């Protein structure tokens, strides 16, 4: 009797992934695909693994590759733009085009709200997560080198629902 093995390229469910534990030291990318194959996963051209979960992922944009383990399997599915969220601890707005703006890293959500405050709680700037960020000024005047606080309101998808969350922390402006 002939044995039939179903095989096929992975098909993304939604955008193909979700990230959990934003702003933590243990952010996780979970790959969401379906199809007939038995799949393996690779993050940023790293080693292949059987698990669809990548833990302790560094901040920034990542690429995930999915392949069928069947040697006669189909082509790889590539998922780009898997964003892991964090923020820089400092920035140096001195015009050298390096760390001249402060913004959250990897929060590719146009509806996210980021508010920056001075140490007294005065709102200095509201910025977009998808823009350049804050240039270290208030009403056109350079702010002093010190710590500043921020609040981010964003959405996080956990695989079944989207939850609105808020994160607060601080960073330093260095001159």
Gap from first CA to last CA: 76 Å
**Secondary-structure element pattern, one letter each:** EEEEEEEEEEEEE
CATH architecture of the largest domain: Sandwich
Mean pLDDT: 93
The radius of gyration over CA amounts to 21 Å
Question: What are the segments in which pLDDT stays under 50 over at least 5 consecutive residues?
Answer: none
Annotation field: number of helices: 0
CATH-assigned fold name of the largest domain: Immunoglobulin-like
Strand order of the largest sheet: 7-13-12-8-9
Please state roughly what percent of the residues sit in beta strands, choosing from under 5%, 5-15%, 15-25%, 25-35%, 35-45% or over 45%.
Answer: over 45%
Largest sheet: 5 strands, mixed
**What structural category characterises the helix and strand content?**
mainly beta
- What's the CATH class label of the largest domain? Mainly Beta
User: How many domains comprise the coordinates?
Assistant: 2
Helix percent reads: under 10%
Q: Which outline best applies?
A: elongated
């Amino acid at each position: 009797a002939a044995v039939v093995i179903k095989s096929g390229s992975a098909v993304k469910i939604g955008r193909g992934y979700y990230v959990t534990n934003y702003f933590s030291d243990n952010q996780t990318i979970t790959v969401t695909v379906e199809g007939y194959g038995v799949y393996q996963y690779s993050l940023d051209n790293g080693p292949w693994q059987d698990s669809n979960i990548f833990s302790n992922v560094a901040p920034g944009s990542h690429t995930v590759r999915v392949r069928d383990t069947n040697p006669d399997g189909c082509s790889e599915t590539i998922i780009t733009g898997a964003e892991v969220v964090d923020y820089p601890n400092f920035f140096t707005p001195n015009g050298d085009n390096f760390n001249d703006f402060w913004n959250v890293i990897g929060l590719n959500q146009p509806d996210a709200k980021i508010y920056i405050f001075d140490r007294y709680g005065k709102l200095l700037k509201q910025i977009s997560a998808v823009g350049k960020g804050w240039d270290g000024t208030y009403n056109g005047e350079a702010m002093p080198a010190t710590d500043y606080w921020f609040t981010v309101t964003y959405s996080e998808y956990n695989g079944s629902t989207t939850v609105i969350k808020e994160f607060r922390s601080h960073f330093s402006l260095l001159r």
